[in-house]
Amino acid sequence: MKKRNLLVFSWLIMLYANGVMYFLQGFLLTRREIHLKSAAFDGVSCCLESKYEKIIILIIDALRYDFLAYNNSTNKSSIPIYQNNLPVVEKLLKDNHGVLYQFVADPPTSTMQRLKGITTGSLPTFIDVGSNFASDELKEDNILSQITSSGLNITFMGDDTWLQLFPRSFQRSFPFPSFDVWDIHTVDRGVEQHLVPEMMKPDWNLLIAHCLGVDHTGHRYGPEHPVMPLKLKEMNSLIEKIVSNMDPQTLLLVMGDHGMTRSGDHGGDSPDEVNAGFFAYSPGWNIKFNTSKTRAINQVDLVPTLSVLLGIPIPYSNLGSVILDLVFPEQLWSQTRPSEEHVMKIAQSYFSEALYLNTKQIWRYLETYSRDSSFPKKEFEHLSSQFDRAVHLFERLQMKQCSNSCTSDSSCCAPDEKLEEFIQAAQIFLTEAKEICRSMWARFDLTSISIGLTIFTCSLFLHANFLIESELTWMKPVKYFGIIGAFLSILVHSWSSVLTLGLSLTPVFVYLVGTMRKIRLQQLFKFTYLAPFVMAASYTSNSFVVEEPYVVHYLAQSFIWIPMFFRRQTKNRQWILRIALSLTTRLGLAFFRCREEQFPTCEAHSLHRSLNSLSGTNWIVFARVSTALVSCIAFYLLYKRYLPFDRKNLFIVMIVWCYWILQSACFLTDSDTIGLVYLPRLFYIVFIVKLCHDIYTFLFDNELGKMSNYRKKISNLVILLSTLAILLAGDGLAPVIILALASIVLFSQLFTGESNCGEMWPLYGLLSLHGFFASGHHTSLANIPW
C-alpha cells in the first residue's frame, strides 16, 4: 500500500507540475531586459544642444488628470470636491506659459513600475507588478544614468523608492519612508523643507521632488473625503513657491505617476488609474495652448523628451517618442508673429533631428531585441520598411548641414512640406513600434495555456479516479510509464506541443479507460465533487468572473441548505445552526466591495471604511458605530455560549479599542499622533507574551489530556489571533472578522459528531472564499491595497 501511494503521489506531482509550468509559461509574460547603454559617440545616440539649463520634476503621487484640470462649470454644486484645488495651473495656462496633458500610464499602475517607465522608457508586463514591494538597483539604461554619465548633477527629495532603484545617481538626496500609507504629511513636509533651498544652489541640472501625500490620502480616506482638497491645496502652494523662484532657462514638469479609483486604490488598468496629470511650465514661453481640448501623451514619451532637452543620449531600451510641444514649443506661437518665421524654421529643424535620433535609437533596440527573442516576423518587416522610409526622407533633407549652419540663418533649411513629410513618417514609425511591442508583451501564449490546462484537467480526473477506484494489478506498469512520460515532457517542453501532450497524457488516458469499468456512475456525482465543478465552470464566463463574490455567496448559501432536503430526519439544533450560519453569511455580503468593471451600477458603501475616514452625514457615522457595537455584543455572546473565554484577553481588546478612539480623536483635532505609535507597540508586546504563554500551556500543561482543556486552550488562541487581525484590519473591517469567527464557531458546531464529511469540505472552502471577499478583497490587481 505504501509503495502504491508513493507511485500515485509521484505521478500526480509530476503531472501537476507539468500543467502549472506550461500555464505559467503562457500566462506570466516577461520582457527580456537589455543591459546595453547608449553613448554619445556610438553612431546612433549623437546628442543635440540642450535647450534648458535646469529642469525641475515635481511628481505628485496619484495625481489624477481631473485633479489637475480646471472645471469651468457654472454649477458649483456639481463640481467634485477634488477639483479646482490647483488654481495656479489654470493661471499659468492663461498667462501663456504652460501646457497641460493627460499623462497615460501603462498598467500595472503601481509606483515602482511607473518610475521604471518614466526613467527607462520601457513598457511593463503583467507579472512586473510583483516587484512593487522589493526591487534591486535598476540595471537597464535609464535617463538618470545618462545624466550622470554626461557630467550633469541630480538632486532628489521625497519617496525613498528612488533610492532603491538609483542608489548612486544623486549628488544630494533627501529620502523619506514611502509605505506608511497612514502618514499623509511627513514626505510632503520634507519636500517643502528642502525644495526651495536646493533650487537656489547653482550645482544641479535636474531636481526631482516626489510627494506622497495625495496618494496616501487616497488610500486612507478616498478622493472624495474633505482631506483630499486640503492636501491638493498644499501642492498648489508648493507649485507657487517653485514658480516664484524659477528663471527663464528653467523648465518645470508637474506630473502624477498614476491615478486612483473611487476608493483611492491603484494598480489596475481602469481609466481613473491610468490617466494621470501632466503640466509643463517655463517662464520663457509665450505660447497659445488650447485648454478646451484634452490632449494625451504616454508616460514613456518623457524619457526621449528629457534626453533631447538636456542634450544627452536617449536610453537604449526606450520606446517613447519625443513630445512635440516640449521640444518644439515654437509651433504653439500665435499666428500673428510672422517676424519670427526664421526662428520657427530653426526650431522645426531641431525637432526633426530629435525625431531622427529617436527613430534610430528605437530601431537599434528592436534589432537587438529580435536577435535573441521571439519578435513577430511580419510586424518586424513592416517596421523595417517604415524605418527605411523615414531615414530616406531625412537623408534627402540634409538635416546635418541645416543644423550646423542655421543657428542664425534659416535660408539653408529644407522647405516646410519636406520637413513635415519626414516628421509624419517618423511619428508613424515611432507610434507603430510602441504599439506592436505593447501588444506583443500583453499577448498571452494561448498554445502553452491550453496545454497547461489540458494536462491539469486530466490530472484532476486521474486524482479523482485514485480516490474511488480499486487497485488493478495489470495497471501498475502504467503508473511507471506515467511518471517517466511526465518527467520527459518537462524536459522536452520547448520541442513540440504534440510530443509534450503525448508523453504526459497517453498513460493517463490508458489508466482512466482501464479503470472506468470498475467505477459506478453514482460515484462520479457525489455532493463533494459538485462545488469545485460549479466553481470551475463559472470561471469560463467573464461575467461570472467579475461577479465572482456573488457566485461564491450563492453557492455557499445553497450548500448550507441543500443537504437538509436529502435527510429523512433532522434535529431542531441543525435547523437553528444552519439558520444562524446562513444569516452570518448574508451579513458578510454587505461588506463586499465593487470591482472597477462594476461601476457605475455598483454603488460603493462606507461599511468597510474606518470611522475616521467617513465624510458623510451623521446617520452614516451612526450606522457604522451601531454596526461596531452590535458586532462586539455578538462577539461576546457567541464565545460565552460556545467557547471558554480567558478574561486576560479583555486587556488586549481594550488596547485595540483605545487605539481606535485615539485614532479618531487625533483626526478630529489634528493633534500629535505619538500615541498611535506606542499603543500598537504595547499591543504587540502583550500579544507576544500572551501567545508564548498560551502555546506553552497548550503543549506542556494539559490536565490529564482532557478534551475540554484542549478545547479551552484552542479557543483562547483563536480569540488572541483574532485581536491581532482586528488591529491590523482596522475598525472598518472588525465586524467582518467577527462574522468570520461566528461562521467558524457555527460551522464547527454544525458538523460536531457528523460521520459523513462529504458535505463539510465543499462548504468549508466556499465559506473561506466568502470571507476573503467579505474582507474587501478581490482577485484583481486594481483591488490590491498597495
CATH-level-2 architecture of the largest domain: 3-Layer(aba) Sandwich
**What gap, in angstroms, lies between the N and C termini?**
49 Å
Average the pLDDT over all residues and give the rounded result.
80
Low-confidence stretches: 399-411
The coarse silhouette is: globular
* Major sheet description: 8 strands, mixed
Rg over CA atoms: 32 Å
**Helix coverage percent:** 55-70%
Assign the CATH superfamily of the largest domain: Alkaline Phosphatase, subunit A
Structural class by helix and strand composition: mainly alpha
What percent strand?
A: 5-15%
Q: What is the CATH level 1 assignment of the largest domain?
A: Alpha Beta
CATH-defined fold name of the largest domain: Alkaline Phosphatase, subunit A
How many β-strand stretches?
8
How many separate domains make up the residues? 4
Question: Main sheet: which strands, in order across?
Answer: 4-3-5-1-6-7-2-8
Can you give keywords for this protein?
786 residues, mainly alpha, Alkaline Phosphatase, subunit A, 4 domains, 8-stranded mixed β-sheet, globular, Alkaline_phosphatase_core_sf, GPI-anchor biosynthesis, mannose-ethanolamine phosphotransferase activity, membrane, endoplasmic reticulum
Summary, kept brief:
The protein is mainly alpha-helical.
Question: How would you sum up this structure, described in words?
Answer:
It is found in: Endoplasmic reticulum membrane. This protein has 29 helices and 8 strands. With 786 residues, the chain is mostly helical. It folds into 4 domains: 105 residues; 287 residues, Alkaline Phosphatase, subunit A (3-Layer(aba) Sandwich), CATH 3.40.720; 107 residues, no CATH class; 247 residues, no CATH class. Strands 4-3-5-1-6-7-2-8 form an 8-stranded mixed sheet, sandwiched between helices. Helix 1 packs parallel to helix 18 and helix 23 packs antiparallel against helix 28. The longest helix is centred in the middle third of the chain and has 32 residues. The two termini are 49 Å apart. About 2% of the residues have low confidence.
